[in-house]
Write a structure and sequence with these properties.
The structure holds two protein chains of two kinds. In chain A, 56% of the residues lie in helices and 9% in strands. Chain A is built from 46 helices and 18 strands. In chain A, the strands form five sheets. An eight-stranded mixed beta sheet of chain A has the order 8-9-15-14-13-16-17-18, with helices on both faces. In chain A, helix 2 runs parallel beside helix 4 and helix 43 packs parallel to helix 44. The longest helix of chain A has 35 residues. Chain B is an alpha/beta fold. In chain B, a hairpin with a 4-residue loop joins strand 10 and strand 11. In chain B, 41% of the residues are buried. Classes of the chains: A alpha/beta, B alpha/beta. At the A-B interface, helix 20, strand 11 and helix 38 of A face strand 7, helix 9 and helix 12 of B.
Chain lengths: 1086, 298
Amino acid sequence: MTAQLIEEAREGLRQFPPALAQEFEAAVEAAQPILEPDELGQWLRDGLDIARHSLRSWEASSEYFRASGPVLEQITYDQMREWCAVGIDLMETSPALSGALFRASPAVLPHLSVTQANDWAAQGKSLYKGTWKSGSLSAQYFDVSPQILPHLPLSQMRLLVDLIDSLASHSYELASACLGMAPGVLAQLDRADRAPFLEFGGIVAHTAWVDARVYFERGPGALRQVSDEQRPRYLSLAGQVAMQVGRLGHPYFIEAAQAFSEVDKDIHEGLLELAEQLAQHSGDAAMEFIKSSPRVAQRLGIDDIARWQEFGLQILQQSRDGGEAFFRLESARGEEVMEALSSRVDLDRVSELIRMYCKALTGVDVGVKASEELTAKGVGWVDESSPTTEGTTIYLPENVERYPTKEENFSVYKVFATHQAGRLEFGSFEYQSELDPNLFPAAQNGSSNGHGNGVVPTVVEEEEQIHTDMELFFDRFDDRRLAHDLFTIVEDTRIDTIVKREYAGVRRAFSRLQQAAIDRRRPVEDMPARQAMVENLLRASLDEIGRIRWPNELAEEMRTPLRILNRIRSEGATVQDSAAATALLYEWLSQIPNVELDTEDWSDFEQEMSGDPDGGEDSDMMPGSGSSGLEESFMPFMPGSEEQPYDSPDPVDFRGDFKPELVQLLMKLKGETGTGDAPPIPLTKEQLQELLEKSVEISINELMDMDLAESSGMFLDNLLKEVNQIQGERQEGQQAMGDDSTGADDGEELPVEAASFYYDEWDFRAADYKPRWCRVQEQRGESGTSNYYTETLHEHTQLVQETRKQFEMLRPEMFRKMKRLTDGEDYDLDAVIEWYTEKIAGATSETKLFYRRNKVDRDVAVAFLLDVSASTDEEIQKHHDQRQDDQFDDDPRKYLSWWAQRRAEAARHPGKRIIDLEKEATVLLIEALETIGDKYGVYGFSGYGRDNVEFFVYKDMDEPFGDRIKERIDKIAPVRSTRMGPAIRHCIWKLQNTDAKVKILMLLSDGRPQDHGYGRDRTEKEYAIHDTKMALTEARREGMVPFALTVDRAGHDYLKQMCQDMAYEVVADIESLPRRLPALYRRLTG
Amino acid sequence: MTTATEAITEYRSWAVEEFRAEEEPYYVPVADEIEVFEAAWNSKIPVLLKGPTGCGKTRFVEYMAYHLNRPLAVVRDGRTEIEDETNLPLVTVACHEDLTASDLVGRYLLEGNETVWIDGPLTRAVKAGAICYLDEVVEARKDTTVLIHPLTDHRRILPVEKKSQLLQARDGFLLVISFNPGYQSALKDLKQSTRQRFIAVEFDYPPRETEAEIVQHESGCDPDVALNLAKMAEKIRNLREHGLAEGASTRLLIYAGRMIAEGVSPRRACQVSIVWPLTDDGEVQRSIEEVVSSIFED
């Protein structure tokens, strides 16, 4: 029965290609054992029906047969029929799809129920649009379904299909590629994120379909930056934004996600919420907000970010552009608000203040810099966050954010700075071996007395110089580390005490930091004895006698060192006393065994002697009689414990690093010893090496991550470099002074070095400044020869003389006699006689009888700003040409002959360029200005982009006129773009630093301001004009007279806007510029 | 100078050359300036006082005028009176940039139908044998400074051009000028030909303890406050040439001391009488205020 059925089917399949028959045989083999005979018949009929359906349907049939076996392993035959019915239905659409469906079936079935088959097939079918490409896309759908369905429930499959469908309407290749990527992409995503991911993808496909591939490639990675729970929310926000901003949606998504990786995960939720609020008003603002969040979060906590956002939101509601600039951090207001909200105090905002403060306290020219700068030098300091000083500069951490208000944080800086300044003011680095202490017996400071205190090095005469006194002092002790720690504690105590005595006003802030410092200290009880004693001394030094913990039984042993330390607090203590106290303490402590103490009886140390630091005999401080007994008294508490290695106490943050030995060395190397102007001492590497090896202040391992030999070499190099640099500066200074005194003018100019200045730029859309937006690089103009100048004068002899004469008339008389005044220097004889005659004659007349000689000052300074952008390279003739071209419209022959003629002429006399006329005008103006004696500067500007506004100095305000200036004028040449705003602002700065009653800023340009990024896009002119206008307004606000002059005939339209109520002029006939400019100047100042 | 303790100071007036200090002006010598000045006076050598503002130059001149006695008959209003030893009159002229020669020497005035000559302060001082103190002399016009040349050398003569007269200075006359090299600009410097006619006494702010003593005496504040004020001034003076044109003067310290004595809190008193008068630069103000707040607790 069955065999017959099979045979019939086999027969029926003959008409089809043999491949089908092969599949058939295999399938029969698999199905026969499973199927009931009637089922088998049915099955065979179905297969045949499929094959016979249409021309190429045998392929689908072949898939049908191949799939049958595996499918039947998973579901019953009835179910399979139901399933296959879907495929057979699909035959009507396309046999190929049907085949794809059968092919995918075995692998899909584990993920789908039979009832879902319809839905599944329908989605695939929806991709099919009757074309070949859509057919293969649809088939691909069935093919990848087995890989997608494990990740995506069928219900969400719709999202993917819609996405692909949407892409397919633009590009089948892209759609197919994305569909191919889908399984991999989905696998990378968390389950909860998949649907939102596809939803956003759908929007991307809609708004910016070209980005879809990138989205599939980079999206999952980008998304991982966002904290887990927030990802769906972020995707939905991104979608919302993309709907508003279109093509920018996807880049925003990637960039903002990147921003999330830079902020703490805990605040992602808060940020998103804030961004969502913004998205209701502006998608750009929302995304810019997230992009800016890493920088904002550095300064503000989430609550303050919310306040900041609220402020920006208000601006956003008034002005979209303003709000967006705010969130892009491109608005001065944004910065201000942030600064106001932030409790953090940044060093660069207060460094000048602190520098002056420290200078006031110390009376020396200290610098104030970030600690990082010192550590970067690699000369022995490693801690980037603690305050310190190397003798000439006070180094402080980059910012302080310890307390909730700015005032408190600033007071932290103040305490840091006061302590460091105290070291300088009260001589921490001025230890000298030969000086006696004030408070301690001098003998104690002498050479070592017994107890193996090391040996005073026998110094060879010529070597003596290279040892600093501090080094020799530490040489006296075997354990340099202990000695150094003790000296640090003692000296810091001395400094703190003096500071608090002298500067009562900082006491409160000081005590607060002391309190905080002591709260952070590690428990004493865990430390071995000597270390515990050092720790206790440190606590005592922080004014916290009450926080000392010490075994009761050994109270006596603690008391003596405390007494020594306390004495340093007396008035009149010097660094010599600190050294003496250190020696005493060392002697005491070096006898304390550094062992774990076996006692439970630790208690607060009650200090009965805190009242009188001078109390007690000197002998009390001596290890003296009981010295041998010291160790014995510890005996009961050290049951055979081993001597532990000694560790330095944790540093106290507000005191920072203290490296007296290194500082003295640096000072000595720099030739700045307190002992006078001894010349800097040349030091060999070997000598330095020796010092390096013994000093505990330099821990090479921390300094550099290399092997010892290499890093110590590096350290020495750095040290020598540092010293040489300072000496170099000094020599240079002397050199410069020498030049001045001789007035020599022949030396080579120093290499051109650009100094950078930063200026805000006005964003008229946001109605706010973009803070520190442009960098102006000031550099001296190159030097050519002075011939140009002379030749120009020669060429314009007539004009020069004319101008000079006119300007001479401007020069004021020193005194102008004013007559007929009611009061003055003296009577004006004529007036008196007249008055008297009239009086005799009985007429009453005015009594204006005095004269006064008034001093008349002409006090004018002018900054002359030349546009040297590339457009000034243009030949002037061309301007005319453009007009003349029109005349030849009809007759090309005429034109050609004219053109040839012109060419020949041009070859003989190269045409003048705009820049040439600018130069000539400058020469004439300089000549005129020299006559009249006004202060003036000649500058040029150009550049490309906001980072690189070039500002050339041809003659600075205070520079005397001379050959150098002439040479520079020769080299004035066209460069690049025209970003006027920053150049004007820099000129304003120049004028601000010039002392004159009348200040004029004269701008000579050849066209409208334009530069890369000087506006929303290349063609936008508004932005640049507004910024320039604002810059000119700023000049006016500063009491200067801005004047714009252009040789651009089309200049009226924008100059009118740029200058509004300010004076400007368009010089229509460019060639008249050299004549016009001085005339204008005369009119301006006359 | 009248004391501040009087409840009401009545309005009084003097002829310029008759003004004499009735009470001893308070002055604490810092170095040997008194001896030097005496010697100069005895030898009729004019004196140039250099020093920053408010360090006591004027007070010093007052003090010297009080102490330099002239045991001579005084001729006044045509009559000769024998007076007891008396201190020198002091004629002080504050120089300003419009101060002209005739402002110093004198001028004709119209009175009725006549012109009447009125002596200027310098002429009066020359006639009366007073100390003529030209304060801030660099401020005056250049022509003014030339006028004093013949008075300053051996001739001791004041030419009165308009009257075609020469006046020989009376004994006791001494020309004292002061100037402050601090805000010396190229424009406002004394000409060498003028400078080199004087001996110069340099003044600076007194050392901390002395200054504290002065502040305490003049302001009546507590010794501690005075010492703190002096300490603060020392710190602020470190900022000279670094944002500050001049350091805090002793005069300002005295003001601050008085404010504190009147019950103004020290920080506030320093703000109004020291920080704000000193500079308008916000940053420098902050720096000084930080110094103030480091020294005074409230």
